[in-house]
Model the fold of this input.
Amino acid sequence: MRFLYHLGVHKTGTTLLQNNFAANAGALLDQGVYYLNALWPDGLRRIRRRLRRGQYIHAHGDVLPGDNGMGQVNGRIVRRAVAAGARAVLISEENLLGATMHRQMSWGKARAQLCPAAEVCAQVLTAGLKTADMKVLIYTRSLDGLLRGFYSEALRDLATDRGFAEFLEQVDIPACRFDALLRRVRSALPEAEVSVRAFEEIRNGADGFVRGAAAELGIDPAPLAVSPGRVHAGVDRDQAEELRQLAARKARYRASRVLARPANPNLPIELPEQYRAQIDQTMRGDLSETLIRGLSPTGC
Done:
């Protein structure tokens, strides 16, 4: 059984891909691809629980115990896929390489990073499986956009009442390079086929973004019906300020009203000036920037 993993990372169009894969679960199964998220969602919930517990343990400096029961879960997934007549399992989930930055902060981690437990999580996730039978897809994003995305996500969850500069004080920015993340994933899954694409491809539209991801995973994109779907957009400056106040008052019930308004593209959250040079230095020569520069002029 071949396993196809789309592992995010966070804030790189994962929701758009998941919505379209779910809407095409039947068409995928016709190709022999069992989309776990839609066909056995409880299996994905079991994976999430085990990996979240493992990441919490890892964040506190302890060794992740064994495979955390993932070997048994993967065995059940294989049996269900075989029963459905599939030859491959597709799993799309942005949390399987590590927690969001604000979750790392809530666990007491001194400086949040980009998927700091990625190597350990990849090993646990694939327990009992042959890495030679795996295809892994990871999306990159420019670091400034990624950090804005993580901050927006923390605001949406009312997980911080800090300003963007205060939030970045808790981030280990030099540790947020995609080339380092990719090396850790490849070291954990040495025989797996690992592909990387740029989130910025989404500027060419949802259709190309979704079909490109499918093709990268070895899926024929032609039969798929692609929809723009619903994505978790960032928040604008006014929304950010309102959400900070709600977080400080723990008034979660009012957050939905703020988030119901579409973000104003003319009021983006501004990158604090004191972090520009550090972010530019970290991005210089990183995999994410290399991929972005390689996009066509219409795509970037």
Summary: The longest strand covers residues 134-140. The longest helix spans residues 41-59.
